[in-house]
Hints:
The chain is an alpha+beta fold. The protein has helices at about 5-15, 75, 95-115, 120-130, 150-155, 160-175, and strands at about 5, 25-30, 35-40, 45-55, 60-70, 85-90, 135-145. The protein folds into 2 domains: about 5-90 and about 140-175, no CATH class; about 95-135. Strands 1-5-4-3-2-7-6 form a 7-stranded mixed β-sheet, with helices on both faces. The longest helix is centred in the middle third of the chain and has 20 residues, at about 95-115.
Amino acid sequence: xxxxxxxxxxxxxxxxxxxxxxxxxxxxxxxxxxxxxxxxxxxxxxxxxxxxxxxxxxxxxxxxxxxxxxxxxxxxxxxxxxxxxxxxxxxxxxxxxxxxxxxxxxxxxxxxxxxxxxxxxxxxxxxxxxxxxxxxxxxxxxxxxxxxxxxxxxxxxxxxxxxxxxxxxxxxxxxxxxxxxxx
Length: 183
């Protein structure tokens, strides 16, 4: 297991050529300590675990690692299905002004199309993400006040990775002197 900066892992996810809409995620508070846990998974790419914390309202720090090279049915059972209420997406800025204009035109077309036709929120979200060329998006279960039970189930299956990443994150939190809440 190779521990890396959390944003480097998200950059790898963004660079993957896998189907962007097949990603799934689950997140919530860390089991102990400051911060949050996030599992991000794709059937052809694998499973990533990220542990992050807010250093201040504008800066996030953390670590992550690839914890499985594939997403089997057992692990998939702990991740949200396609009909989940929550959604997530990774975004990349346009390459240049021409690319930004192209993306804007596509987005405007999607919004107008969905305005004039019966549609579902999921379909609208998927079409918007396609128009924005999102490299990864999909269903997400997230609890900003607690931990989903499925998050604990995944943590139990990746106990060693959880332990190593928790220790690394705790050291980072201590070094940044943010091991207490904002005042």
